[in-house]
Specification:
β7 (about 135-140) and β8 (about 140-145) form a beta hairpin. The chain starts with a strand and ends with a helix. Helices cover about 50% and strands about 15% of the residues. It is built from nine helices and nine strands. The strands form three sheets. The chain has a four-stranded mixed beta sheet with strand order 5-4-3-9. It has a three-stranded antiparallel beta sheet with strand order 6-8-7. Strands 1-2 form a two-stranded parallel sheet. By secondary structure, the chain is of the alpha/beta class.
């Protein structure tokens, strides 16, 4: 709910009455229409909840937290995260991940153990950033919550003009498995 009134005291009193009647109500108060307009131009409520983790998929895959590059202790951990981002929230099984990350190698206990280590490493990296909720892990499935990341690929699919214009024919160039998504993106744009 948006309330506009130049009298700040009256505005807060009105907001207090509304909160008392409806504790779950989201209320924004503005002293003028100009203040409301500035808030909306800055992204409004969406701007306030913009994820702090930004993922770049156009070109090489890169991850940033508050504008700083995120360091992954293993290159395969970064590739695991890239693959989960590519899946856009769809779950991946351990078998699928081993066939993608260890292309051509048989699915052995050793490979499964390495995969579990990568998942632990990814979760630890994100936990240090306070972003562990990005990973959704169930028994034999792992995924990302796409609503918790700011991703150029996701914004492009949603029709964001800036993201569409940022696509220059390169998508996660450092991973061969990304060519399928690249083909779909080229057809779409």
């Amino acid at each position: 709910m948006i309330l506009i009134d130049p009298d700040a005291e009256a505005l807060e009193a009105m907001a207090g009455h509304i909160r008392q009647a409806e504790p779950q109500a989201e209320i924004r108060t503005f002293a003028s229409r100009e203040d409301l307009t500035r808030w909306l131009e800055a992204g409004g409520a969406a701007g306030e909840h913009r994820p702090r983790l930004r993922v770049q998929t156009f070109g090489n895959f890169e991850v940033f937290y508050d504008g700083r590059p995120v360091h992954f202790s293993r290159s395969r951990t970064k590739e695991l995260f890239a693959y989960l981002i590519d899946r856009r929230g769809a779950g991946s099984t351990m078998g699928e991940l081993t066939s993608v990350l260890w292309e051509g190698r048989p699915d052995t206990d050793s490979v499964r153990s390495q995969l579990r280590s990568l998942i632990t490493d990814l979760r630890t990296t994100l936990r240090r950033l306070g972003e562990e909720a990005i990973i959704i892990k169930q028994r034999d499935m792992i995924a990302v919550d796409p609503n918790r990341v700011d991703c150029d690929y996701y914004r492009c699919l949603a029709g964001d003009p800036a993201a569409v214009n940022a696509f220059r024919g390169e998508y996660m160039s450092n991973y061969s498995w990304a060519e399928t998504t690249l083909g779909a993106l080229e057809q779409r744009t």
